[in-house]
Amino acid sequence: MTVKVRIRKGDNVIVIAGKDKGKTGIVSARVDDGKRVLIAGINMVKKHVKPNPQAQQEGGIVAKEASIHISNVMIVNPATQKRDRITFKMVEQEGKSKKVRCFASSGDVIDN
Question: pTM for this one?
Fold first, then answer.
């Protein structure tokens, strides 16, 4: 069974809900079995870190990225610079049919 992966690592997305609503960024990782994503520079939180002399790590307050649920982000269509939904369609390549992601508004293929 294939899983519909709508948002992937490296996609340019926009946050549609939460404290960072309206900000855009690149997906750097998918976590929690693909239900949450890390976006570079988005949803920054402060974490208190204890010093660890064996790892040459200083203590203090560190800013790091927290994950966002995948339902709170949408992919950005580079042609229109607006958020867009993702659909799937089958295309023929070298005699084989392949499932690809497309923008819902224009039908342009996202994947190669």
Answer: 0.82
